[in-house]
Structure prediction request, 340 residues.
Amino acid sequence: DVGAFLSGGVDSSAVVAAMARQSDRPIKTFTIGFREERYNEAPYAEAIARHLGCDHTTHILEAEDAATVLPKLQSAYDEPFADSSAIPTWYLSRIAAGEVKVALSGDGGDELFFGYKRHMTERHVGRLPAPLRRAARVFAALPPLPMKAGNAVLQRWQKTARSAGLPDGGARFFAKTQITPPALRRRLFAGTQLQGWDEEGAIEALAAEYYPNMAAISNDTLEQFAMCDLALNLPGDMLTKVDRASMAHSLEVRVPMLGEDIVDLALAMPADVKLRGRTGKYPVRRAVEPWLPPGILDRRKQGFQIPMARWFGGDFGAQVEEIWRESGIAQSGFLNPRAV
Prediction:
């Protein structure tokens, strides 16, 4: 049997809707949900599954599940892997593997059709006059805000302002996809083998290492940004995450959005067709809208996030800290133990 991962977002919904139109029996679909409403896309996935007549399974993920799976993740990924959604992807693969041998996913749609919030941000930033973009770095130079939930919006603005003065869309891609702010990394690297590695100009140097001539890709900074997403983030993070988790359960996951015809079509489309005003993936939305429940695609993009802050505040965080202390990493010389 062939099933599908269904998050309730545009891309997985498009894939499942297309499958349902081709199949003479219900499609088996699988979703991970959370107790925390802010992170829980399961109700949207369930609504789409009902509409399409799918044989649907939802698994609610708890912090205890995450703690249990950590050693298995370490074994499957072989190296440090910073995408926390590897945890729900692992369980999603395990559940699907119990019922099907192959599952389809919607990976690739965001990168090809400009579905990330950062693509819209780059469109706005890239159109600002250079003097105004450089001035934005004054705001970025302010001390980083404490890592508290109430500061999340200002933290994002500060991150955007830090990247605004960078020379092109490629450099801004590297800046926007940082997980931690530079000031925090400098604390983590102080007195270690990495001290001085992340000083002024490090982002520009990293971007130039990958793309010495960014203008050869495109004169449009959004196209530059999106090509980095497609060529670096997609294989290095998204596809690796799903491949390792699924293969650990002997499950084949295929990505129809990355079929040659769709990739060729997407790369030939002008940026303003794919990102229309504030709506990313506009052509995909319009194509599949008649197949789905009315209004289901109108909500804001959520992404496959987990309630990490709350989990870290409980037993899961204590377990991670214990692993850090007892594994020998604390004495490795790569990160400053006090900063950690």
Observations:
- The chain has a mean pLDDT of 89.
